[in-house]
Specification:
Layout: E1 5-7, E2 17-20, E3 25-26, H1 29-32, E4 43-46, E5 55-60, E6 69-77, E7 85-90, E8 93-99, E9 108-113, E10 124-130, E11 142-152, E12 191-195, H2 201-213, E13 218-220, H3 223-227, H4 243-259, E14 262-267, H5 282-297, E15 302-306, H6 317-338, E16 343-347, H7 358-370, E17 376-379, H8 391-401, E18 405-412, E19 438-442, H9 452-463, H10 470-481, H11 485-497, H12 501-504, H13 512-518, H14 523-543, H15 549-566
Parallel strand pairs: 12-13, 12-19, 13-14, 14-15, 15-16, 16-17, 17-18, 18-19
Antiparallel strand pairs: 1-9, 2-11, 3-5, 4-11, 5-10, 6-9, 6-11, 7-8, 7-10
Helix pairs in contact: 2-4, 5-6, 6-7, 9-10, 10-11, 11-14, 13-14, 14-15
């Protein structure tokens, strides 16, 4: 039952009480922190399967009881396909039960009428519960609350969307990028770089000089690039690589060698495959080994085995972790038969969070026990796609698995969605490099040229995290990439138009321009957003006719979509 959800646009009247999301007890903020989606003081709940992280509550007193008071919530839904089912009760009265009615991955304030007699002077209790049965901490389904308030219907609720924007101040002159180290200091993360995202050979080759010029020293192929290119993905990992694919990889490997970049050969023998590898099968191991053996013959010394986004198997997390650890260990030992200095990184099934949820802990402890001590583990941070990555979560995760970590930062990746994330990387702890040994940015798909704007900020952070300034970094990144003052202004406007999920909230598929248009409170505001987007599109066509073409296609499609939305 839902009682009167409405979007808030009203004015005046102070609230009786305002409670930050972090004032709620329970939930999962203790696991991943209360800074989420550009907002401090956030509380959130995950599925019933994660209990006790599926429910949070807060108690409060009221200075007076007023008949017209309502419950205001500033909240957001996850980025899954369907709305998260939640229950909201106040003093035992069910105010909402069912789909959340909040937008995906962006803050919105809604208000809810309260039945007469719901409120009392003291010990009011507001409870928010996730009703979804399945899920794990750190992944959808989830529901987040920035604040709750009791106020009358005329209260002008703070709009958190106002804080989720980007203004770039372009520098008057170029400064070194990445930010120079202080005397005697070493680069923060020893390994600093990126991977592909179903990139073509030409995309890899175009980005290698950029990496080398701006403090990067590491490039990993996307495991989808080994067997197919965007948009197709045919993971027939057991088959030999074709001559054309080998030739492309050789060009990438040789270019990395010329530019002083460590190339890491990566493979995923289970993801989206009609024949997933059996970790305990000798025959499957040898079929997989043929690819690593070939890469090693090309002079590659760093390798990756990925088992992310699959399961640990029906036998349970502990057995699955043991099997995966033995598989990775067997691979490293085989590589070291030819090269004693060969290095291996591994992406486990539980690759995010602090490692303390029961299933994750069982998997990671068994994995760590079976894994060779020299194997690095990739970890995406406090969550899978997350606005803040903390040292606390890294220390906790590493203490559970007892292996060295590399950060797989899921920014500015768009997972091939119609979205651009061009703002600077933010929210990464300045001392994370004291716990984590490497930093790898996960990039956008087709828009690899535009990806350089946020990538340069990622490399700046990875090189000198203690002095990293996102405002300086994004301005210098654009200044370095543009060849004229006019181009700088066009790229700055492009980044301000698509500031990215770390600033605006949402997930990898969040399109910040369309979201802003959808939130317009009047036809005049919507028309102004469209006018500015049209102007940017004209400027890109005029000043950058042969550059940033895939990014321009995103803008072209967005302009057409907005034009259709304004058509009577």
């Amino acid at each position: 039952m839902t009682l009167g959800w409405m979007i808030v646009f009203a004015v005046v009247a102070p609230p009786a009480v305002v409670l930050e999301g972090s004032a709620f007890s329970g939930g999962a903020a203790s696991l991943y922190g209360s800074h989420q989606y550009g907002c401090d003081g956030v509380g959130y709940v995950y599925s019933a399967a994660t209990a006790p992280h599926d429910v949070m509550s807060v108690t409060f007193d009221l200075p007076e009881l007023r008949d017209d008071d309502m419950l205001y919530l500033a909240a957001m839904d996850d980025d899954a396909a369907s709305r998260c089912a939640i229950e909201i009760t106040l003093n035992g009265v069910t105010l909402h039960r069912g789909a959340s009615n909040f937008p995906d991955g962006r803050w919105m304030v809604r208000r809810m009428r309260l039945p007469s007699g719901t409120l009392r002077s003291t010990a009011n209790e507001l409870i928010i519960r996730c009703l979804e049965e399945e899920g794990v901490v750190g992944m959808p389904p989830w529901f987040m609350v920035a604040y709750a308030a009791i106020a009358d219907g005329g209260w002008e609720a703070p709009d958190l969307a106002d804080t989720q924007s980007l203004h770039i101040e372009l520098p008057r002159e170029l400064a070194p990028l990445p930010t120079p180290l202080r005397p005697g200091d070493s680069p923060g993360f020893p390994l600093r770089g990126t991977k592909g995202w179903r990139w073509t050979t030409e995309q890899y080759l175009a980005e290698i000089p950029i990496l080398a010029a701006y403090g990067g020293n590491y490039l990993m192929n996307c495991y989808t690039s080994v067997f197919s290119h965007f948009p197709e993905f045919h993971n027939e990992w057991w088959r030999p690589l074709g001559a054309e694919r080998k030739a492309g990889l050789i060009r990438v490997i040789e270019s990395c060698r010329r530019h002083g970049i460590t190339f890491c050969f990566a493979l995923h023998p289970q993801f989206a495959s009609p024949r997933p590898l059996d970790p305990e099968s000798d025959a499957d191991f040898h079929l997989m080994w043929q690819h690593y053996a070939w890469a090693q013959r090309q002079g590659v010394r760093w390798f990756n085995l990925s088992l992310d986004d699959v399961t640990w198997g029906d036998a349970g997390p502990a057995v699955g972790g043991c099997r995966h650890g033995k598989l990775a260990t067997r691979l490293l030992l085989r590589l070291r038969e030819r090269d004693a200095e060969a290095q291996l990184s591994f992406v486990p099934v539980a690759y995010w969070g602090d490692g303390t949820s029961p299933d994750h802990r069982a998997y990671l402890e068994a994995l760590g026990e079976a894994l060779h001590p020299d194997v690095y583990l990739f970890w995406t941070g406090d969550g899978v796609v997350i606005s803040r990555i903390t040292r606390r979560a890294a220390e906790s995760y590493r203490a559970v698995v007892k292996h060295r970590l590399l950060l797989w930062d899921n920014y500015p990746v768009n997972d091939a969605w119609h979205a651009l994330h061009l703002g600077p990387v933010i929210g990464r702890a300045p001392d994370l490099c004291e716990v984590v040994d490497g930093y790898m940015s996960n990039p956008m798909c087709e828009e690899s040229e535009a990806n350089r704007i946020p990538l340069l900020t990622c490399l700046d952070y990875a090189y000198n995290p203690s002095d990293y300034d996102p405002d300086r970094s994004i301005g210098q990144a654009i200044a370095h990439l543009a060849s004229s003052p006019v181009e700088r202004h066009v790229l700055a406007q492009l980044a301000e138009t698509y500031p990215g999920m770390l600033l605006t909230g949402g997930g990898t598929g969040t399109n910040s321009l369309r979201d802003r248009f959808s939130r317009a409170t009047s036809p005049a505001e919507a028309a102004d957003i469209l006018r500015r987007a049209r102007g940017l599109l004209r400027a890109m066509r005029r000043e950058l006719p042969n550059q940033y073409v895939p990014a321009r296609r995103v803008l072209e499609a967005d302009v057409a979509w907005m034009e259709e939305g304004l058509t009577p």
